[in-house]
Amino acid sequence: MIVTAADIKQQQAHELFELIKWVGGRARLAHTCGVTSQAVYEWVKLGQISKRAATIIHRESDGFFKREELRPDVLIWNEEI
Length: 81
Fold this sequence. Notes:
mainly alpha, globular
C-alpha cells in the first residue's frame, strides 16, 4: 500500500485530536509541552504538533503516544526520548 502525503497529514491530525482528548484539552496540552495555547491552536490549524512537543509527549505519556506516530513525516529526530 502506498502512503501519500494526504494520508500522513490525516494521520497527524487524527493523532493530535486523540492526544488533546487524552490530555484533557488544549490548555493542558500547552502546559504539558511548555508552550502557549496559541501554539496549540496553530498545531490544530496545521494538523500537526511540533517535533519538540512530540518528543515531550512521548516522554510524558511513557510511550503511549509515540512521536513517530504523532509526526510520521519526521525522518531524523534531534532529541533523544
